[in-house]
Amino acid sequence: MKGATAGLIGLAGCSGTSQDGERTSSSEQMERETTFRVGTPWNPDSLDPLVKGWMFRKLNVIEPLVIADYNASVKPGVASGWSTSDDN
Fold first, then answer.
1. pLDDT in tens, 59-70
2. Going by C-beta distance under 8 Å and a sequence separation of 6 or more, which residues neighbour residue 49?
């Protein structure tokens, strides 16, 4: 999943110039609407991951906040950090 994410980020970085050849700022790029298209053999009635979570896992288009490795150690996924509350 991280490889696919890195590939998409790499492709997104290739579009840094405007049509007239001038560099565009990152704020201008953020203002543009982006579309992520995924072909599926299903016709989903919802794109809510809470309702159709199996579909997103099957398509491999979501990345969890944290990932448990084979030793049950928690590694960061999308989350850059986390803390444990003392009120448990």
1. 666 677 888 888
2. 56, 62
- 41-52, pLDDT tens digit by residue? 667 777 676 776
Q: What is the pTM of this model?
A: 0.31
* Burial class of residue 73 (count of CB atoms within 10 Å of its CB; 0-12, 13-18, 19+): exposed
DSSP string of the chain, one letter each residue: -HHHHHHHHHHHHT--B-TTSPBPPHHHHHHS--------SS--S---TTTSHHHHHHHT----SEEE-TTS-EEESS-S-----TT-
What are the residue boundaries of the structural domains of the chain, listed by start?
Answer: 1-36, 39-88
